[in-house]
């Protein structure tokens, strides 16, 4: 017969404390002294005790489930987010339930509220572009749901948002490309109804203006953040008589599409064409040539969002977490960019 599973009573007896004190430690309460906390944690580890989630939920009127709502075609981005969230969930005893949806659907708000109600989740993390919906945020507030939005713009109370400063990151990218000597630059945007696409374009364009270099609007092409749209945009830009010597794509997936088309057209990268992207996903360092890009700390953003939502769910808002909302992406220079040379 298998050994009896240790209970909270066993932990309390071994640690010489009350069951209530053990419960506080399990639930992440700050109302426990550091020495007592350490002692109880040592007993929990020694006994290999894990709380019964169903009983725990009934006792606290919580499900210990967090939701993740998204509409993003980039599977690598979603994987980074989930890893970041689970890094916090696992230490706090929460599970994650994911829910894909359609950002442009007419029933977005109804769909998301139905998911929250149906899954009985305690709080929800909303990813871009869904996080950009003012109607959804208003509905979540009105219904009293705990939520945190991940976004590229400061759209909400800082308790409820984690922002990636993408305008500043794109300024850094623009300065780098110009420093190499590029003046003839192409830009493949993301969907222009997304805040993130506008932030990246404006951050890049405004910096070029400051540097005395305009961005030719004929060389700004709208993409869809997909590999295929990167190829389509590259075909359009690289067929021009005055083709760009550098192309920035709104994400790494589209940048990979540009690299593919350049190869097909016999254009050498980076000798005849510099290519840069955004995100620094796992493929960026593995493709040949490796991709110059903006590293957005997606995992760190997701972990911060999970921390915020758990604090909110547990009515235990920590001032430093409340105020901490802005993360700063930064430039990663690799093989796909160099000074321009004459076009053969």
From TrEMBL:
Species of origin: Paraglaciecola hydrolytica
Keywords: DNA-binding, Transcription, Transcription regulation
PANTHER family for the chain: LACI-RELATED TRANSCRIPTIONAL REPRESSOR (PTHR30146), LACTOSE OPERON REPRESSOR (PTHR30146:SF153)
Keyword Oxidoreductase recorded: no
UniProt name for this protein: LacI family transcriptional regulator
Source superkingdom: Bacteria
Segments forming domain HTH lacI-type: 6-60
SMART domains for this protein: HTH_LACI
Keyword DNA damage in annotation: no
Chain ranges of the HTH cro/C1-type domain: 7-50
One Gene Ontology molecular-function label: transcription cis-regulatory region binding
